[in-house]
Amino acid sequence: MTAKRERRNEFDLIRAVSTVWIVLFHYSYTFVQYGVGGSHLYVMMYANGAWGALFVSLFFMLSGASLYYNWGDRITSFTGKGGVLDFYKRRWLAIFPMFYIAWFVFYLMYVISFDWLWNWGGQYRKLILTFLGVDGYFMYREMNYYTVGEWFLGAIIMLYVLYPLLQWCMKKIPIVSTVFIVLLFGLNVARREIPFMAPYNAWIQISDNINMITCLMSFWIGMLLIRGGRRIIKKATFIPALITAFVLMLIPLPVSILIVTPVLAVCFYIILSYISIWLDSRRDKWKLTVYDRIVGFFSKYSFAIFLVHHIVVQKMMALFTGKEMSLGMSILYFLLNLVIISVLAVLLSKATDFVLGLFKPKSRAGAA
Q1: Residue 233: half-sphere exposure toward Cβ, Cα within 13 Å
Q2: Which residues contact 282 (CB under 8 A, 6 or more apart)?
Q3: Looking at the DSSP assignment, which residues form a beta bridge with residue 324?
Q4: Whole-number Å distance between alpha carbons of 133 and 161
Q5: Whole-angstrom Cα distance, residue 43 to residue 21?
Q6: Does any domain span residue 49?
Q7: 1 pLDDT band (50/70/90 cuts)?
Q8: 36 and 2 in contact (C-beta within 8 Å)?
Q9: Domain residue limits at 272
Q10: Residue 8 to residues 95, 140, 203, 218, 280, Cα–Cα distance (Å)
Q11: Alpha helix locations (H) across the chain?
Q12: CA distance 352 to 130
């Protein structure tokens, strides 16, 4: 296994911005969900797509990028430290304990709300989907015991399962693999216009923007961005990315949202990376303590925030069902939601650390 790599601060900024924006997107949707009127904050759509889909795509890119950056030359065997099984163990520990704790808390809330109906999700065999972390992803098929994580969690877990193979492909056959994934993505974009795709269309009924081919495309782009190195993050790419981003955000174009979304996500990846690197270059002149704390917090607790935020914004907005809210009030209420979500995320993280600590072997006093 190679030595630990240099920390990439741009990953933290991308993760923090994506986290807050996704919370804002779901907060905005609750105004529609609960019939709240007025001149409130509403951040749902840009000219060519949805903000939520954009920042989820950016999250997938970041996941592919950070994994390939940290593990790109580490998985060289199946067993042993740094092997495939070690990778799966580390990913499992990073996701499932926290997910299980959050799921169980909200499961009990549903039990109480359904008048102590323990099997509110149907047959208990469906709990296998929860055990695997994919209950939210397969909710489009039928009702199950999903409470937290949404479809994104299931998608990222499946991509993590594929990662060792994807890493091998990136190392050994990068061009062939890229062409193959792009072709798959192209077929997925145009699948309803291609006659021989009819059986696939009948089988894969999940929304186009969240099916695994779409997710894989963003994840693979993230790996490609790391393969390209930091040399692609410079002023010569920042300015075109900025211009392209403004065009895609402001001018409606006759292009599929499935194509616009990853293109705009790449632009945001370059823009945010450039800003982060630019700020890092001025640390000897500027005090960035507040910036570091804010970005560091939302990056560190991003997964916990992701798990709890949806239910929080729904419960909070339900208090205003059928009422009106001004722009100023909606902004303040969003900040309140964000504070509550942040507190719950910290508590969830602390609870997870406590539970995991119970399973760690205690060192013997006086041991060498």
Answers
A1: 21
A2: none
A3: 37
A4: 12
A5: 9
A6: yes
A7: very low
A8: no
A9: 9-356
A10: 21, 37, 41, 19, 10
A11: 9-33, 51-71, 84-113, 127-132, 150-172, 174-189, 198-203, 212-228, 235-250, 257-280, 289-300, 302-318, 327-358
A12: 18
When divided into structural domains, the chain yields a total of 1
In a domain, 4, yes or no: no
* Residue 140, both tokens: 């489009």
- Helices 150-172 and 212-228 pack at an angle, to 10 degrees, of 50
The long-range contacts involving 234-241, CB below 8 angstroms and separated by at least 24 positions, are 234/274, 235/274, 237/270, 237/274, 238/270, 238/271, 238/274, 241/266, 241/267, 241/268, 241/270, 241/271, 241/274
- The tokens for 342 are 């942040």
Q: Is the dihedral of CA 64, 100, 123, 121 positive or negative?
A: negative
> What is the arithmetic mean of pLDDT over 231-253?
95
Query: Tokens in use for 107?
Result: 């499961």
The better pLDDT of the pair 196, 238 is held by 238
- The set of residues, in sequence order, having a beta carbon less than 8 Å from that of 137 and lying 6+ positions away, is 151, 153, 154, 155, 158, 206, 210
Angstrom distance (rounded) from CA 145 to CA 123: 9
Output the pLDDT for position 178.
97
Q: Is 229 exposed, middle or buried (0-12, 13-18, 19+ CB in 10 A)?
A: exposed
Question: Which two structure tokens, joined as six digits, stand for 196?
Answer: 């021989």
Identify the residue with better confidence: 268 or 141: 268
pLDDT at 204 over 70: yes
Give mean pLDDT, residues 42-65: 95
Write the pLDDT tens digit of every residue in 183-199: 999 988 888 778 877 78
Task: Round to whole Å and give the CA distance between 207 and 53.
Answer: 11
363 domain-assigned: no
The mean pLDDT value of the chain amounts to 92
Instruction: For residue 157, tell me if it sits in a domain.
Output: yes
Q: For 118-153, what is each residue's pLDDT tens digit?
A: 999 999 999 999 999 999 999 988 899 999 988 999
Q: Determine contact, residues 338/41, Cβ cutoff 8 Å.
A: no
